[in-house]
Design goal:
The complex is a heterodimer of chains A (255) and B (354).
Chain A: H1 2-23, H2 26-31, H3 41-50, H4 52-86, H5 88-102, H6 106-116, H7 120-145, H8 149-157, H9 162-199, H10 206-215, H11 219-247
Helix pairs in contact in A: 3-11, 4-5, 4-7, 4-9, 4-11, 5-7, 6-7, 6-9, 7-9, 9-10, 9-11, 10-11
Chain B: H1 2-38, E1 49-54, H2 64-71, H3 74-77, E2 80-85, H4 93-98, E3 104-108, H5 109-117, E4 122-127, E5 134-139, E6 154-157, H6 164-172, E7 182-185, H7 191-194, E8 200-204, H8 208-214, E9 222-226, E10 237-242, H9 243-248, H10 250-269, H11 271-281, H12 287-301, H13 316-328, H14 346-352
Parallel strand pairs in B: 1-2, 1-3, 6-7
Antiparallel strand pairs in B: 3-10, 4-10, 5-8, 5-9
Helix pairs in contact in B: 2-10, 2-11, 5-13, 10-11, 10-12, 10-14, 11-12
The chains are: A mainly alpha (255), B alpha/beta (354).
Chain lengths: 255, 354
Amino acid sequence: MKNKVKNLLWPLAFGIALILAWQFGVFHKILDLKPFQLPVPTEIASTLAANLPKALKDCGVTISGALIGMIIGSFMGFMIAAMATFFPKWGYGGMIVVTALNAVPIVALSPIMNLWFSTGMAQKIAVVTVVCMAAMAINAYSGLNNLNPYSIDLMHSVAANKWTIFRKLRLPNSLPHIFTASKINIASSIIAAIISEYFAASTSGLGFGIKDNLRKAEMAMGWSYIVVASLAGVILYCIILLVERDALKWHASQK
Amino acid sequence: MKKSKLTSVLAVIMLILLVATGCSSGTSATSTPGAGTSGAEKNASGKLDKVTLQLKWLPQSQFMGYYVAKAKGYYKDEGIDLEILPGGSDIIPEQQVYNGVADIGVTWVSSLMKYQSQGWGLVQVGQIFQKSAMLLVSKTSAGINSAADLKGKKVGSWFGGNEYEIYALLEANGLKKDTDLKLVQQDYTMNQLLNNEIDAASAMTYNEYGLLLESGLKDSDLHVINMNDAGVAMLEDCLFVNSDWIAKNQDLYVRFLKASIKGWAEACADPEAAGKVVFDADQSVSLSHQVYMAKEVAKLVVPKDFDPANIGYIDMDAIKQTADLAHKYGLLTKPAVISEDTVTSKYWKEATAK
């Protein structure tokens, strides 16, 4: 218990010190900035409070796009990994394609998707889907295939068929990997959604808010969108952690 | 095993070298603008003063006056070595000039007013475009014959400060921007309009409207709402500087303005040649598009009944209208302060004095 408190206190103290340094102009001094170039935390907080309904609405738009895209992308990634496991001969080709897709930068993907989809939401979901596919496919594949040799021998010795091995051995074995991929994907899906909003044919979402306000010299408003975006990312990450703890009670990492 | 270790060590060394070379070229690139500003003081020894000009957008005929003056050596005649920095969608001239990356910037007046109102020490020192070039264009098939017909339509804007003339237009025609129609972000092509994804698109007379014509549409296929005719025009391309910089470089700026006015006058008198000069300086778009743009820009810089000798003149009534519209439609939270510290014709008068 004592250790837990300690583990929490140190980062908390560090965070508070950082915000205080920011508030009292330490960063401004070091980087030679004026408050209108980098607004101080209290100004950001009051701007955010004044514009909370709009910020939350925009946050909802971004997060729903990110989550839907992540679910579709992760599902597709998992299916590709499963294919590659079941039919190693030709299924592995899908893994290679997905890895190559992973290398396409989001900034290139967004304008392209903009041409393919007419609404901002569809474009955003498409970008996030592509971005989330690779991490899930690669992680799930290693989870489905890096099996304990004794376990697979046991399965063979009782003449288990492919499907039973998949359900009873491969799937549980891949769960920790799937959660790792989900943790990667939750962060990258929000990043992808925000960047795609820079280019999207819509005027809602955190990405549009950040870009538009920073260009119009509304620095405090732009920063409050940045704060909302990072808070949303942290909250979603925590949710995944909680689900993981529940789902993987049996696993060594959770003891 | 040993061999693979060697390969990985080699790979890491190569990565480090790559980063090192990347950083070193990075520092040399960032040190140039610094040298530029320090060298900007007047020197009588015959050496040229270095001045950097930050454009609002890509190198194109929108800025032909500076390119013509540079090509013809007018800046050199004034003892100036001018470097022209191209802009882009995420390059903000106000921030570039304030940070000292550039000495002089080209931006829209409304956008400059916004920065000034937030406390940025910038001052407007010239007005190149006398008219607004902003149009709302729709295909005749969309049936948008007047601003009132925009009700219920999908309308594109680039935002980031470019939306306020449209807001003013809508409000002047009794439309509410949030409920009566759908405003969407437009990219820098005209594809959304061409593919009927939006009903009306923002277009500059000198650029996007030309793209529509080049894509095969005719004037008769398009309906245009002109912000000047609608009485909601806001001023666009102007020249501005950092207040601290101009305090030390008044004479240098006046010489820059003299040469620029000469370049603009020549460009507007012969836009065809000016388009060619811009094209030769930077092949960002085709020659025919540069020439088209040059012809349209000439109409904004030297409108009908405007004396070319007055290029750069700051029309305070138009400034006032821009400030009022910017305040009324939400760009500015409080009325713009219009004083010698924010807009001054002092240097223009000096530059044009006979």
